[in-house]
Amino acid sequence: MLLISRTACNSAAPASVVSCPYCSVSFTDSSYLEKHLKWTHRSNYLAWLRNHKPPQCPKISSRMLSCSSCPHRFLTQAQLKAHVRRAHLPPPAPARKRYTCPQCDRSFDYMGNLQNHCRRCHGLATVCSDGELSCSECGKSFAGMWGLGPHRCRRAEGDDEEEEEEEEEEEEEGSKPSVTSGRPLCTDRGFLCRQCGKNCPTLQCLTIHTRTHTGEKPHACSVCGRRFGELGSLRKHAVVHTGVRPYECPECGKRFARMNHLSTHLRTHTGERPFPCPDCGMRFSHRATLHLHQRVHSGEKPFSCPHCSKAFSTLGNMKAHQRMHSTERVHECEQCGKAFARPDVLKKHARVHSGERPYLCSACGRRFTRVQHLTNHQRTHTGEKPYSCDQCGASFAQSGDLTKHTRRHTGEKPYACPHCPRRYNNSGDLNKHARSHSGLRPYRCQQCGKAFLLPHHLKTHIRTHTGERPYACPRCCRTFTRTHHLTQHINKHH
Description:
The chain has 18 helices and 31 strands. It is an alpha+beta fold.
């Protein structure tokens, strides 16, 4: 399969004509061909993706550091060391700690840390004497007690009974304990979140994780006021206000504030797509793009319009749809000032001014501004009529023609004239009728200046200047300029 790579697509000349190897469609730019292959010849496109080797970028390759044990490559020495430590070095042997908690299997280097742990996590008050830990309530020593079960004295047993009674009362009342209610639940691997059951290795990690349930964001940016749940996230955000962008792309020179942003950007040059879809095999350069694509298979549409309840798979599509209700049009054409709600619609509109028609019909050479216009036009050559009426079996080349035809069976006329009682089954006929009220005659004869309401009226009028008489009587030699003149002649003389 021959498919032009992303690098070649960007460098291809707009004037060149590129033909699809699987059908008769041609394009003036290779990027349009790639989109066509992606959606029209999907199986061939996916086969190319599986065998695709990213193009080599010498500037990027010269700066990459290779791992001696695997083919992975990295931009910095720190990334390479972290990779070797995680992937190729054996885990370090855990150092034996001196002081072990009598309630759980955690151990600490310092006695003070163990006492704080017993007080905060287990509600157990302890006393340290001669390097040994003992219970402050009953005086029992914890030396040699690890592994024999949690320590329980009389006061603790009474507290446990009270806690069990409170839990039974909560279950009877049907009340759900809060996220932070009670002491943290200790496990053999750390601390368990009471809300979702996630295991956190340390108490600090549990505290930070709990904020995802409570919505607490204690760390605020002093510049813009944005709040974060973790201090590390605030520090990463603060780089945005400094304007420092230390990471530069060796291929195009673009700079980034974070290394992961640069690593993601490099895929636009190398063509790397490390995230495959498990359902169809299609590959993506970003994990977020893969998650959005997977909604195509699952049918998930989590974003609903509050005005019409229409659902969308992405938040951007929903916001673009909402502008239709609010009449907000933020993308303005620089040539004529016309505004649009979506940037892709503005891009298509710009072809009106530039004259660009990138979609070429290989049968007749006619060009179109949109691929859908080309698809509809090609049916005039192939004779394809994929849209059929369920009631009478009539077929049509375009879905809009089938919609208009169906209204003839139902009698529906949803387009009403605001000036008179007349109604129409399509908007085109209503616009034509509206000219009879406004007096607008947009079709003018270039020879005599006479204006007309409809284009076929002008076409018929031009025959008075050219002398063309295309309608001939089948029984005599007379010809006519209009069909109804021929019909009248046949009814009267034949």
